[in-house]
Amino acid sequence: MIYIKNTVVICFLFFSMLVFIYIFENKIGEFLKNIESKADEIEIKLDDKEYEEAFLKSQELYNIYKEKMVYLDMILNHSDTYGLNEEILKLTQYAKSKSDSDGLASVHYVKAILRKMINQHFISAENIF
Questions:
Q1: Of the candidates 8, 10, 7, the residue with the CA atom closest to the CA atom of residue 18
Q2: pLDDT tens digit sequence for 98-122
Q3: CA angle, residues 65, 71, 73, in degrees to nearest 5
Q4: What pTM does this model have?
Q5: Contact, 88 vs 62, CB < 8 A?
Q6: Per-residue confidence at 21, pLDDT binned at 50, 70, 90?
Q7: Tell me, what's the pLDDT at 100?
Q8: What are phi and psi of 7, to 5 degrees?
Q9: 91 and 83 in contact (C-beta within 8 Å)?
Q10: From CA 106, how far away is CA 87, in angstroms rounded?
């Protein structure tokens, strides 16, 4: 009788963990896609040479990033999060100094890191095995 009870408890814990992981991974994916859409907006502003708007959007992006990364930094790859943090900071300065080429390069680098992070945290057989 005790073995059945232990088995039920272990199965409940296992399935609870799976549900928690699924929900949390979806939240991470939504957050990263939100940052990617903000980076797209900044890219459009830089292409249109709207530097003040690009600067404000990049500051908004940095504030959103810093607010949420406090919780996600323990789950996401540190080399990616540090690189993303530095590049977003550079992006704010490039937008402020009205540097087209550096700003666009920085936006593309941010988007590349974000795509890598999204692909790593998408639940698939390739990422499990």
A1: 10
A2: 888 888 999 999 999 989 888 887 6
A3: 75
A4: 0.78
A5: yes
A6: confident
A7: 81
A8: -65, -40
A9: no
A10: 6
Tokens of 75: 């789950």
CB atoms within 10 A of CB 108: 13
SS3 string, the chain, reads CHHHHHHHHHHHHHHHHHHHHHHHHHHHHHHHHHHHHHHHHHHHHHHCCCHHHHHHHHHHHHHHHHHHHHHHCCCCCHHHHHHHHHHHHHHHHHHHCCCHHHHHHHHHHHHHHHHHHHHHCCCCHHHHC
Distance CA 85, CA 109 (A): 11
Amino acid at position 12, single letter: F
Please name the residue that has the structure tokens 């908004």.
60
Q: What is the largest CA-CA distance in the chain?
A: 72
**Cα distances (angstroms) measured from residue 33 to each of 3, 27, 50, 102, 124:** 45, 10, 23, 23, 18
